[in-house]
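Data card: per-record layout.
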Amino acid sequence: MNSVKPMQSEQNQYRKTILFHFWVTCPALAAMVVLPSAAGVVAFLGLIIWAASKSGLRQAQALGLQFLFMNVNGELFHTPSSGGLHHALPLVILARLVYDQRLQVQSRLSPFVISLAVVGTSLFFHSLFASLLPAVSILKVIGFTCYGIAVVLTFGTCRRDELDEISRWYKGLVGCVILLNAPLMFVSVGRSVNGTGLNGVLSHPNLLGVFLGISVAALLANALSARTLHPIGMMVIGLGLLELFFTEARGGMMSLVLSLGIWYAAVITGKSNTRAVRIVGRGLLLGVLALPAVFATSATLRQATEKFLSKSGRTSEQGLVANFRRSRGGAIDFHAKIFNRNKMFGQGFQVVNSGSRALPEVKYDPIWKTIPISASVENGFMYTSIFAELGVVGVVPVLFLFGILTMPLVRCRDNPANVLLLSVFFTNMSEAAFFSPSGIGGWEWQMVALYIASYIQLTSVVDLDEEADKLDQDTIETAADNGVPQLSF
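The structure for this 489-residue chain is written out next.
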């Protein structure tokens, strides 16, 4: 009986979190249907005030809701105008953290913050001297750096109980978006962009695909590693997978499959402990149960896969590799040509637009008409676009940042939060948004910050200065069972 009560308590908490999001998020979205887009300024100002009122959970809530409000379906809602206030949120968060004296960063968090500061400083000077559009690149560097540091510090400096609340809050937000999308799968307004791919309450199928690819992968990893399984959570996961398929977003699906596959392989080849055995056992059981269904519906499944890969016939190529070459191969070739024109310094941070030699169209502020406020670029494959933008010299600090971010993957191999970083990295093979926090990149960085916070909490119980280079997984497992929150979702 004692083991049943905690499970019921956790289920009740998750149910209450979902209901809370419906009481908060749904009225906010409903107001966006009725009110004009200019009222969005009031909404964004409210998020700034909310983030300034208290560090921790409120700042995470402001970040999550800002992403949602900035990327809503324009056919369903009046797209809110932020009036540039969305750029102020990370600065307000940093100011509140300073006020609360939370910038006394512990040693395990400092490498991530320092690496972001190094990248920001390096790219600032690179943009100043090497970019073809210096003002655009500098403002984008400042925006990315401030956002990255703010979100990492927000989660990384939280107490254990605060992180537990933040984790539950993000679970509820994802669950709320998935449930709101469910009825839109069957109506045209839910496929308003291209007529076939589901975009639901968000603005584009690819954006929803990335959102679901990262989020559902995290939910699945958490389900495989959790001590108890929750029926509501499993229902949300199943519905999220169905919606991901209907988005026709191949990049989102690829990131989910590859991130879970690599994490599962790392668990199998790592040290054996209670959690690793549980993950491997549930994964094998899931595979055994799925095999009969796969064989029984092989023809239907093959047709569905072909339809998904061809985006309901909107592309002519057959197979994943052929479709990747068509959709992203041209961008990679274009990046190679740009890189060959200036191998040392590139064209400039975030001013390369795949498929067009022309510089991105810049929109300036309506008052002074000299400050760039928008310069959209589209680079499908981030790992070649950074060389085209930054050259050999400028890409060095970025690779340093990637190396720091991947460090916990080796030290905590069975941590389900690793799926968050892996899925973000794989997502940027098709949607290069890592350096663009105004769009889906904002969600990606919130997930990266959760991954970092999970690593810090799991390693807070061991001394990293001992002679072992890798953490004792049994010690980590014991600590997790004794109350360290599982922030993988």
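Known properties of this structure: The chain has 17 helices and two strands. Residues 1-7, 462-473, 478-489 have pLDDT under 50 and may be disordered.

See the next section for split statistics.
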